[in-house]
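tool_call: predict_structure(chain=1)
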Amino acid sequence: MSRHLLQIEGLHPPQIEAMLDLAESYVLLNRSGKTQRDLLRGRTLINLFFEDSTRTRTSFELAGKRLGADVINMSVASSSVNKGETLLDTAATLNAMMCDLLVIRHSQSGAPHLLSQKVDAAVINAGDGTHEHPTQALLDALTIRRRLGRLEGLTVAICGDILHSRVARSNIHLLTAMGSRVRVVGPPTLIPADCGRLGVEVFHDMAKGLADADVVMALRLQKERMGGEGNARPGGNPVPSAREYFRFYGLDFDKLASAKPGALVMHPGPMNRGVEIDSAVADDPVRSVIKEQVEMGVAVRMAVLDSLARMQRRNV
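tool_result:
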């Protein structure tokens, strides 16, 4: 792994496996109630979120504190950024603060990459536009591996708004690299035209797409990104209505019956219940691992912070 974590694309299976193994150790540590507050003692972690987030920002904050870092959450809504400061101006300011680790979420694809070229800190992409969300893919992979024992040879169906989903892209890159068979399922208006080039199978019918799947991952409709570039219905909603969408693509037990018995149900959150997933499926105590995904998020982000901090020490 390089000194930053900007994307999953380009990572090799041994790198991914090593990160998952390290995260596994942090799952065990967290469950024991112990911490390793000396690992990042004296280091500063800044969370710079240009988009709203609850799970990701909070889990990075918790991960940093459990490792002993000084954690600063920058409120973009009340910062100079919201007053017209450019991203490069912000980079210069952050450099002057001499932070060690910088977590950024931004609405524009490529913003973390740009920052990584302008700051001395290790940059972690917490989601950029429709590009990637690498730590989400890592935590999803860890959740699957812990439950099913492997990633290689599994069939994973990712359902819903693939077009606007950075989670889908990161998961596709990771799962295909690790030997999983990946399917994307959704209406034609929500599937990227070049999706087949990513090594996935494309389905527009839930029964066919979920057939014999080991894992079913539901994605929310990202209405905030619809109506812009890439929308199959320019100026309008790419789906007729939430009710109609749920009828054909909402994950309920009837549609889930096409998957393997005991197939895992996942969702990166936040969920739109009754739109892309039925509450009974989301809350199923046996099939759903949605709460476990949240737990794995803290462990994975601890592993990422730990790895990048160790790399900084080697490069000093």
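agent: The first strand starts at residue 44 and ends at 49. Proceeding to next step.
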